[in-house]
Every structure is written in structure tokens, then in C-alpha cells.
Amino acid sequence: MTGLAIDDAAWASAWRLRSPADKLLLSGGLVLAALVLPAWPGSLLVGLAAVVLALGPARVPARTFGRAVRLPLAFILIGAVTAVVQVGDGGLGWAPDAAARAGGLVGHAVAGSAAVLLLATTTPMSDLLPALHRMRVPDAVVEVASVTYRMLFVLLTSLSTIREAQAARMGHAGIRNSYRSSGMLAAAVLTRSWDRARRLSDGLAGRGMETGLRVLPEVLPSSPRFVASTVVGLAALVTVSVLA
Questions:
Q1: Which residue, of 43, 45, 92, 150, has the greatest Cβ tally within 10 A?
Q2: Other CB atoms closer than 10 Å to residue 78's CB: what's the count?
Q3: 21-76 residue pLDDT tens
Q4: What is the rounded CA–CA span in Å between residue 27 and residue 22?
Q5: Which domain of life is it from (predicted)?
Q6: Of 190, 242, 26, which is closest to residue 123 (Cα–Cα)?
Q7: Are the C-beta atoms of residues 74 and 65 closer than 8 Å to each other?
Q8: Distance of CA 43 to CAs 32, 100, 113, Å?
Q9: Distance between CA 219 and CA 238 in Å, rounded?
Q10: Cα–Cα distance for residue pair 46/57, rounded to 1 Å
């Protein structure tokens, strides 16, 4: 089965056996700090803290973390550009405070994204979903997240299989063939995934599965030292950011 690099990194992380609640506290605190603290130096400190923790104690591969942050960064940069453009009598132009506004938006968003990726690259979904259930997150939300996560692997497996078949038939030889094969690939993946989802739904309904599938999750104890370090570290970030 085709895997996700982020998921593989989470299973191999040095923080794999830490309590998901502890990691949620850390990542959630960093996200909150990224939102409420000033972009300078608050967002910079939050982003650096998330990256250092991921690459250092958690031992997440730098290549994986860097590749994971590329797409969010692209969306952030596009959003920053559109946020500082204004329409006036002379047409399109830059807002008077374009640099400050764009810098603040990029700083907050990048720091928050790094904090979320810290959680994603250290906590497998099989640990995170039961933790969300214990935190009284609505069952419907947890089930939708679980099904979406499972269907990702169906999509990736279908994509890999069909693309390999196309490549074996020289389907990507030349620009014209590549466009044609890419369209056929998208149509085939969506059709196969829809059929797989329908058959999965019919199978569960035939077994009387009207509620969520209950499993026995692995119990990972919380670490008082980790929680205390998280609280002290977040307090230090806030103090430095406010006093700077």
C-alpha cells in the first residue's frame, strides 16, 4: 500500500509513544501563540520552536518536514499578495501598509502551520482520533476524519497503480500524451474511489454498522515532566514576545 510521508514520519517519530493529549497541548498552545502574539518576534519564535522541536527531540526528517510545509507556504504567499492589493480610482495598486500587513499575515500563518505540522509528523491518526473522542469531540466529526483518512490511501493506491500502467504503455511520452493520460488518470481514480467508497458503505450497512466502529486504542500515559516543560516553554515564548 502506498503510504503518506507525514504518516510514516509520525510512526517513526521519537515522540510516537508520548501521549497524544500532551502533544495536542503543545501544538495547540503554539498555534494559539502564533495567532495572538505579535508577528515580530512572536510568530518568528513560535515557528522556530516548532521546527526545532520537530527536527530535534522528535527526530522528524528535515526533508519530510520541508516538503510538508511547501504547499501551505504557497497558499499563504498567494493569500498575502491578494490581501495587500487594493482597487482604487487608478486601478489595482498596493495598500499603503502592504509590507507590514503581508509580513504579519505570513508570519502568523507560517508559525501556525509549523505548529500543526509538529503534531501531524509526531502523532499517527490512529492515536489522534481516539484522543479526540476522549476529549468529547462530536462522534460525527471523528468519523468523518477517520473515513477521509482511510480513503486517502485508496486514492494513493489507485493513483500509483494506474500511473504505473500508463507509464508502461508510454502514456506520458510527449506533452500531448501526458495531458491525455493525466485526464484519464484523474477520471479513473475518482471513479474507482467512488466505487470503493460505495461498496464499503454497502458492506458496513449490511453488517448493521449504524454507529462508529469501536476499537481498543493503545493507552499512552501522560508525562507530567513533558506537560510542565510545555507550560514553561509557552510562558517563556509569551513573555519574550510581549517584552521585546
A1: 43
A2: 10
A3: 899 999 999 999 998 988 888 889 999 999 999 999 999 999 989 888 888 888 88
A4: 9
A5: Bacteria
A6: 26
A7: no
A8: 10, 14, 11
A9: 32
A10: 16
Residues 6 or more apart from 139 whose CB is under 8 A from it? 133, 211, 212
Q: Find the mean pLDDT for residues 192-207.
A: 74
Separation in Å, CA 182 to CA 137, 140, 171, 172, 175: 39, 35, 9, 8, 10
Q: How far, in Å, CA of 148 to CA of 11, rounded?
A: 19
CB 73 within 8 A of CB 106: no
- Taking the C-alpha atoms of residue 32 and residue 26, their distance in angstroms, rounded to an integer, is 10
In tens, the pLDDT along 65-120 reads 988 888 888 888 888 887 777 766 666 667 677 777 788 888 889 999 999 999 99
Q: How many CA atoms lie within 13 A of 134 on its CB side?
A: 15
Please check the confidence at residue 171 and state whether its pLDDT lies above 60: yes
Q: Grid cell 449504524 — which residue?
A: 210
Global pTM value: 0.77
Closest listed residue to residue 118, CA positions, set 30, 36, 35: 30
Q: What is the pLDDT of residue 29?
A: 94
